[in-house]
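Example 3.
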Amino acid sequence: MSRVKRQIAPYLLVLPGGIWLLIFFAVPMVAMLSLSLQEGDIVSGYRFTGHWQTYTEAISAYQTQIYRSLIYGGIATVALIVLAFPVAYWIAFYGGRRKPTYLFLVLLPFFVSFVLRTISWRQILTDEGPLLHPLREAGLIGQSFHILGTPFAVIAGLVYNFLPFMVLPIYVALERIDPRVVEAARDLYANPATTFRRVIFPLALPGVFAGVLMTFVPASSDFVNSEVLGSSETTMIGQVIQAQFLDNSDYPTASALSFVLMFVLLIGVFTYARILGTEDVMKVAAR
Amino acid sequence: MSASNMSDPTLLRGLTQRRFGRRDALRLSGLAGLGAALAACGVQGQGTQAPPSAEPDAVAKFWNGKVKNGTLNFANWPLYMDPKRPELKKFTAKTGIKVNYQEVIQEMGPWFAKVQPQLSAGQSIGYDLMVITNSFQFTQFRDSGFLAPLDHSKLPNYAKNVAAAYKKEAFDPGNAYSIPWASGMTGIAYDENKTGKITKLADLWDNPALKGKVGMFSDIQELANFGLLKIGVDPAKSTADDWERAAGELRKQKDAGLVRNYYDQSYVEALGSGEVWATQAWSGDIFQKNISDGTNFKFIIPEEGGTIWTDNFAIPITAKNPVDAITAMDFFYETANASTLAEFISYVCPVPSAQADMRSRAAKLTGEDKDALLALANSKLVFPTAAEYAKLHYYVSFEATSEQQKFQKTFEPIVLG
């Protein structure tokens, strides 16, 4: 009896998570795939016809928004690495006993809904707002200069909203670096720059990799920042999908676009993992 | 017999139904030869066209045997009634009908998508009364047979008090399935200090001083309406060719750099913050903004015309308590109730007599309260004059989903950038 129990115990452990994944990930995925191949309209209903053309039509109609989303997501991710690395580095190596406090400060904005925070940026950046109005009065910027509605505003919003997702994984990776490794590098006459380039950065790569995954994917499919801070010129694919689902009830197009986006992002992530050689990275991390 | 009695649709039912009661017979006898003529032209006596319902006895068939149950589940949009619900309290006191009022409708598309499966299956959606806009989804609701045909004999206050303009709405001729809850105009709102006087749509296209300072709606229908009116086409009568031309006109406006952005409800904020100086706007918003923030934005219906939209009461075909629902519909057409309701929502009131009621209530007040209520009563945004109604057009009405999709595809690229 107890042997049987011991044998099935691992399966029982995986069961809750497995069922969760099956119900809330696999089933919707299959349903969405089926939906993307259906034809019809909301009144007469949608029927499965294996209509692959929805994909080609959706891609040709919305390729601008797909490219734009990837570009915005990419720029935001690079900016995030540049901004988050020094922050994580400083907390990890110079945080001392206050580390938890600093990490808490990084996370603090999360205690306010991110939609609300994005809307407050809108108040700050608006044409006659506290930032631009004085500058305009002082004659430093032109009458028609504005920030809201520009790609800059949208990307800045993405960077702002996803910053903790980049800081935390990099911090975790840096935190795990044995200080003796760094000391050894110095003992071997590596100058600080070389130490960083040859020792610290490679060891931090798994964190950067995780951070990129956690930011590039959601940033590229985000639909809030562009909606709140952008204009019609910055429409991202997430907004298109949302509108197709909720405003137009065009479920096949919306599902097809979701799959296209997922596919493109997966290709991107795999290529990235390939180029970066995650396996080596993981090995380094495991050591 | 009064005019309103003569046009009573019960008469029609009396003529088309085999069984009719003694009272109907009495009314009929009073009409003599008129009866036949009335039957021939539908509910013409009421100033309306015949309902498009195929079955002449659809009304009777639906309402036969339906009785008051003392409960009403009412689905409406947010901010469409005083949060204290004074009208509903009064309604319950008067009729004994308990109301479960829910602000569950935010947008037409999602609402239709949400209730469509239940309605298709012939199941109750949990609501007996809903307020739906005269959008494409209204047509979908109607054409799918999801709306109960209205028994106008149960709507005497409506017949007596509604403004004539609402009886000939293109989306629901003869109010066969719906009567208005509130209505609004789409026009131009602008900041006169910055733009000078604006009177026509062309100002939003040609004025170089407005470069990058014009707001348009991201809602495809609203945007298209302005494009169509700009090229002199009545949206309700427009064709696919007109759509192409209108889209070209809107594209021209965009390429000339006039449009700052295509907005949803956030246009009010953009106007308030000076992001735009002139924008496509909904009448009630501007009124509320001016009252609450002390601003002085102007709202005009452009010379080329504006549009009118209406949020309408409708009863889902699967409603469990339709008699309670239609009783509530008529209740809101009592002058006093329409008046207090309009006071809160400050959109166009479909009951003209509410204006006098509002003025007499204002006369009893003092100070700021009095001024505010008087301003509302005298506002053309709440009680438009006949001349203004004449400048207002209805939306494009689609016959089929394919048409709607074509329309969508024609205008969508302008907004998506």
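Chain B has three domains: 3-37, 62-182+309-352, 184-308+391-416. Residues 316 and 330 of chain B are 17 Å apart (CA to CA).
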